[in-house]
Write a structure and sequence with these properties.
By secondary structure, the protein is mainly beta. Helices cover 0% and strands 79% of the residues. The chain starts with 10 loop residues before the first strand and ends with a strand.
């Protein structure tokens, strides 16, 4: 009898995908997921992929500042809403060429992170004495391409590979301080 019947066609493919979300306390759902497709056209095998991840979170906190005897000096109340996303797209194609197997790969990647920190300072009596805003943003972009050739050489396996990667990163942070009456006191700005 037959256990398996294998049929090879000139074109074939497979796929997979997932979609979901992340929920962090008071924030709306942040979508996440992936899609992938692999296949063959003639003698060329290929694969394509797309991933996505994101988050929305608030990291609030309160701390009390005391002197050496333990007496309260001030209370600091912080809010810190944060948002992040990343999306990589990648692909690969390979086929028999030049007496071996040639493979071409590539990826494009993008991410962004942002937080809007705010800090309120209160006296021990509960009166606001100062406020500070500290927004921060960073962005990253990467492009990558690769070429690989594999072949036998006598009793050895030989692989020749080339990879090119280009990345761009930038970030901005700003710190704004105001007094109890929201009158501007100072500003710090840094860009990378």
């Amino acid at each position: 009898g037959h256990l398996a019947n294998v049929v090879r066609t000139r074109s074939a493919g497979g796929r997979g995908w997932s979609i979901g979300y992340e929920i962090a306390q008071q924030n709306p759902p942040a979508p996440n997921g992936f899609m992938a497709w692999t296949g063959r056209i003639g003698t060329t095998d290929y694969g394509l992929g797309l991933n996505g991840y994101s988050l929305l979170r608030e990291l609030p906190g309160e701390r009390e500042v005391v002197d050496g005897s333990g007496a309260p000096i001030e209370t600091l109340t912080e809010s810190s809403p944060r948002a992040f996303f990343e999306i990589p797209v990648n692909g690969e194609a390979s086929r028999q060429m030049l007496g071996g197997r040639m493979r071409l790969t590539g990826q494009a990647y993008r991410s962004r992170y942002h937080q809007d920190n705010s800090l309120l300072t209160f006296s021990p009596a509960g009166v606001r004495t100062e406020s500070q805003l500290d927004p921060y943003t960073e962005n990253k972009r990467t492009l990558e391409a690769g070429l690989e050739h594999e072949r036998g050489l006598g009793g050895w396996d030989l692989t020749l590979a080339a990879l090119m990667t280009r990345t761009r990163f930038d970030s901005d942070i700003e710190s704004l301080r105001s007094d109890a009456d929201d009158i501007f006191q100072s500003r710090f700005l840094q860009t990378v």
